């Protein structure tokens, strides 16, 4: 399959992510960049919530279910908007047409640039991400398609029939399943198309809205934001290669829009395009979307939002004192601080977050090196982004002088400090700060572009304005008409950044994405499934009945049989909680002919076949030994060879 054939899948993914929310934002009175920037957040909130409700009510998940849920949400939104018209929501806020067009049309170059990165980085639209987490994500889509259940409340165990259902944020998987159901494409293509859309369209739209709230009605700033949003390796490109953290990618892509809402609530938005009343309406959708996409995104939003929120509360408190209501102002400020500290204490001690908080990644560099990586946007050993980073540092100085936007300095400092803690310290006493990101430097580094993108844009447009003023004050005119135009100077400065950044680090971004898609050629010991294994796993779908379960050692790549061949493996992931019966089979299946317990457990779990693959992926990982009973029977009684290709073999379990 070529990439042109994958375009309808990408369009379907974009449609599901944008159209439902766009209908709702329009009805509540948002226009222009606000409507488009907030649309994905509302879509994710509605679709993910619908999946949970459908699961609870026993309604099969599918295109029809999602469409009905969207229709209901749109109708309810319309009715509520009609009832509230002329009351607390205020008049429709909109930008002049040139400003709106600048922001939205500026996303088109980002789509073209980003699409080129995705195409060259992934190689083929059906290429597999050869990573630990990808096995879970691919099979989560397969589970949704098989069980017709897309609820986040059951996703944690991938539908294991004899294990208690657990929560896992399924927003990304919900939309990937809709991509499959809408177009009939394969799971790998749907996953790649959706993730590409998040990187090259949803993230730029979200950034445009945030920049609009920061700089106001500045068409030049909005026009360059889309392209500049793809300049930083940490996000979105970093999360397309590390993990892979596709749900986190969805969540973080929505964070700038969430911060745009926070700026409206705190009164810091310049020429506010959302309005405080509508911001209160948007806030629950922001929380729902973040929670169902990935809770990490909510914690990321809190780290950034705390600065504008408390800036707004502090200013309100001062205003109360100036109006003779000092007691009210003091109580309000104190209450806000207490609520924040109580919330922090809860998540820092709650058992629900213990596993996440205590996850350990060993520190790998000195604090001074980690600081340098933050300042040069070369975190986790990536190449330093000199041109963009210099502009960001200039932006930090400039926003400090823009009193309303000093929160950007605080947010940048906080995110950078947390990265430094995870990269160079990572001790038990730091977990109460960094634990909500698994104490993981990659996840924390990915938050930086939420702040560095607007800082880069502010640096360019503000420097252009200052340069125009400086040139105008010279005894003789300089640079002719160009020197008298802030717009022209901003365009020149933007082009200088792009050239200095070697085309926004295009080659670097491609290499970042390609890292997990080229394991077969470049790193055999990191390869989950090579082409021969993929062909074999696909072929056996015609040899195994649909209702049979295939015993497997997931570390040999056979966990992907579900996503590749639509046949359910006994172990669909490398390391999640298994039942006692599954653990017993993992250790004893090869002895089925002489072990009655093995047959009892096999019948309970509908295990009729055994597949044997080749161990390429992390061959020295000790967890592989947990599957010592799932090996090639090699002539033992109770197994009949059905198909083979060298060391790849499929057996029928005849002993039971």
From TrEMBL:
It comes from the Bacteria. The chain crosses the membrane at residues 6-28, 35-55, 61-84, 104-123, 189-211, 220-239, 245-265, 277-293, 299-317, 329-353, 383-400, 407-425, 445-467, 479-501. The keyword Phosphoprotein does not apply. The keyword Lyase does not apply. Pfam families: DUF6541 (PF20176). Keywords: Membrane, Transmembrane, Transmembrane helix. This is Uncharacterized protein. It comes from Kutzneria kofuensis.
């Amino acid at each position: 399959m070529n990439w042109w054939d994958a375009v309808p899948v990408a369009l379907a993914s974009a449609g599901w992510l944008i159209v439902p929310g766009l209908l709702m934002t329009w009805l509540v009175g948002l226009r222009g960049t606000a409507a488009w920037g907030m649309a994905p957040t509302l879509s994710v909130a509605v679709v993910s919530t619908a999946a949970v409700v459908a699961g609870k009510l026993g309604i099969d998940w599918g295109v029809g279910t999602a469409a009905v849920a969207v229709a209901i949400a749109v109708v309810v939104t319309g009715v509520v908007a009609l009832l509230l018209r002329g009351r607390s929501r205020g008049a429709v806020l909109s930008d002049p047409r040139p400003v709106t067009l600048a922001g939205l049309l500026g996303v088109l170059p980002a789509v073209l640039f980003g699409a080129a990165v995705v195409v060259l980085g992934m190689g083929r639209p059906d290429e597999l991400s050869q990573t630990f987490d990808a096995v879970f994500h691919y099979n989560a889509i397969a589970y949704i398609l098989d069980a017709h259940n897309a609820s986040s409340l059951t996703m944690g165990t991938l539908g294991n029939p004899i294990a208690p259902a657990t929560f896992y944020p399924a927003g990304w998987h919900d939309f990937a399943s809709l991509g499959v159901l809408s177009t009939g494409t394969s799971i790998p293509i749907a996953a790649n198309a959706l993730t590409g859309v998040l990187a090259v369209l949803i993230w730029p739209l979200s950034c445009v809205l945030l920049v609009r709230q920061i700089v106001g009605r500045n068409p030049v700033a909005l026009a360059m934001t889309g392209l500049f949003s793809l300049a930083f390796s940490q996000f979105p490109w970093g999360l397309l290669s590390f993990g892979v953290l596709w749900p986190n990618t969805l969540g973080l892509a929505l964070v700038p829009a969430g911060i745009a809402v926070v700026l409206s609530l705190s009164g810091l938005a310049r020429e506010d395009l959302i309005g405080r009343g509508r911001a209160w309406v948007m806030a629950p959708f922001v929380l729902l979307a973040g929670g169902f996409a990935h809770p990490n995104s909510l914690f990321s939003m809190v780290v950034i939002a705390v600065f504008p929120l408390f800036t707004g509360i502090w200013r309100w408190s001062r205003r109360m004192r100036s109006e003779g209501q000092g007691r009210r102002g003091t109580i309000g400020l104190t209450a806000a601080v207490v609520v924040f500290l109580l919330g922090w204490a809860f998540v820092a001690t709650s058992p629900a977050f213990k596993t996440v908080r205590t996850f350990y990644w060993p520190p790998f560099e000195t604090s001074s090196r980690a600081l340098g990586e933050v300042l040069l946007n070369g975190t986790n050993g990536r190449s330093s982004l000199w041109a963009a980073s210099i502009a960001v540092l200039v932006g930090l100085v400039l926003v400090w002088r823009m009193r309303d936007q000093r929160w950007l300095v605080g947010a940048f400092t906080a995110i950078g400090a947390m990265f430094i803690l995870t990269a160079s310290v990572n001790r038990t006493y730091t977990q109460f700060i960094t634990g909500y990101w698994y104490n993981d430097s990659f996840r924390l580094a990915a938050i930086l572009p939420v702040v560095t993108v607007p800082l880069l844009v502010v640096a360019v447009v503000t420097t252009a304005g200052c340069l125009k003023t400086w040139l105008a004050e010279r005894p003789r005119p300089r640079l002719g008409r160009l020197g008298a135009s802030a717009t022209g100077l901003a365009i020149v400065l933007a082009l200088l950044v792009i050239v200095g950044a070697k085309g926004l680090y295009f080659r670097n971004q491609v290499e970042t994405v390609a890292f997990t898609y080229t394991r077969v050629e470049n790193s055999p010991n990191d390869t989950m499934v090579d082409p021969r294994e993929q062909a074999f796993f696909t072929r056996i779908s015609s040899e195994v009945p649909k209702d049979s379960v295939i015993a497997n050692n997931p570390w040999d790549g056979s966990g992907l049989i579900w996503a590749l061949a639509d046949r359910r493996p006994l172990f669909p992931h490398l390391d999640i909680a298994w039942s006692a019966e599954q653990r017993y089979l993992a250790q004893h299946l090869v002895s089925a002919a002489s072990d009655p317990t093995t047959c009892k457990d096999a019948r309970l779990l509908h295990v009729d076949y055994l597949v044997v693959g080749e161990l390429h992926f992390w061959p020295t990982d000790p967890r592989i030994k947990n599957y010592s009973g799932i090996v090639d029977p090699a002539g033992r009684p109770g197994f009949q060879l059905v198909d083979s290709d060298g060391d790849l073999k499929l057996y029928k379990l005849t002993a039971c």
